[in-house]
Design goal:
single chain, 2% strand, globular, membrane, PQ-loop repeat-containing protein, transmembrane helix, PQ-loop_rpt, LAAT-1
Length: 310
């Protein structure tokens, strides 16, 4: 256990306020996506590969931050709660990012359209297999496999991180360099997180481009998160013990998400022009509904007159 003299509290009110604002912003920015899936009752329009890459990237980024700031985290046993929360807020920040994105994956699996999960002997979609010969449809089968990959990836890198941190002697001062194997592992986590983030949006961009619909994607979420990536990078870069491997993930993700946002806005305008909703269904305007009601009303009023004249 570290002593109080080795764990000097560091106060940076600007970074603390920035991190607090970003944590609140993360919850607010992801809420529209969570709500959209739940309210529409479907996750159609999301790419399972996008969710796989995003979940694994977020997990690697979170463990990169934990590894680099492990000595600061251990100081929490000797520091007041406020100082501990301030110094370890970066871990909370990236941990919250991982949690909020992983919730999207969970909601995707829960709200995946039942009628698209299986197909019967006649290749017709069905909610559940009517007999033993029914098989999973390709996309649902892929989604199940990728979800297990996400779980296994998280377990493996978590156990490896904890093993290295608890079996490697670490210097007390956060300013001193980490041992080579811990530093190499942190770099691996950071670089892999950045690479996964770089290709994370490629499947979703391709999927959204092909269907030419917004689907279950939340434009408000992307409108908040795309500029928020700049603040995320700044907040992490200012934290002690971090390096470029900690913030590069969010820089890359911000650029890619901006591209997806641009495409969704274009498709949204196209949908409005074609008179369809985000899932390709015909949209009935309020004026159209009023016209229909008036037409029905006028027919009911004139019908007796036509009948009396016959």
């Amino acid at each position: 256990m570290m002593t109080l003299s080795e764990c000097a509290a560091q106060h940076d009110w600007f970074n603390a306020l920035l991190t607090f604002g970003l944590c609140c912003g993360l919850v607010i920015s992801y809420a529209p996506q969570h709500y959209r899936i739940i309210s529409t009752g479907t996750s159609l329009g999301l790419s399972p590969w996008f969710l796989l890459l995003g979940s694994t990237s977020a997990a690697a980024g979170m463990l990169n931050m934990i590894t680099l700031q492990w000595r600061i985290i251990r100081c929490c046993s000797t520091l007041p709660l406020g100082s501990c929360a301030e110094m370890s807020a970066g871990v909370v920040q990236v941990g919250l990012q991982w949690l909020m994105f992983t919730i999207i994956l969970v909601l995707y699996m829960i709200y995946y359209p039942q009628e698209l999960k299986y197909e019967d002997d006649g290749d017709q979609p069905t909610a559940r297999p009517p007999n033993k010969s029914s098989t999973k449809r390709d996309e649902w089968g892929t989604s199940v496999i990728l979800t297990w990959v996400v779980i296994l990836h998280f377990l493996i890198i978590s156990m490896t991180t904890l093993y290295l941190l608890y079996t490697t002697p670490l210097s007390a001062s956060p300013s001193e360099p980490l041992p080579d194997r811990v530093s190499s592992w942190a770099t691996f986590l950071g670089v892999s997180s950045a690479l996964l983030a770089a290709i994370q949006y490629a499947p979703q961009i391709a999927y959204t481009y092909n269907i030419k619909l917004v689907g279950a994607l939340s434009i408000p979420m992307m409108l908040i998160q795309t500029p928020g990536a700049i603040l995320m990078v700044l907040s992490i870069a200012l934290r002690p013990g971090t390096n470029w491997t900690s913030w590069i993930t969010f820089a890359v993700a911000g650029i890619m998400q901006g591209s997806l946002l641009t495409m969704c806005i274009i498709w949204k305008l196209r949908q409005r022009r074609l008179g369809i909703d985000d899932f390709g269904q015909p949209r009935v305007s309020s004026q159209g509904m009023q016209d229909s009601v008036l037409a029905v009303g006028s027919t009911s009023e004139t019908t007796p007159l036509l009948g009396s004249g016959s």
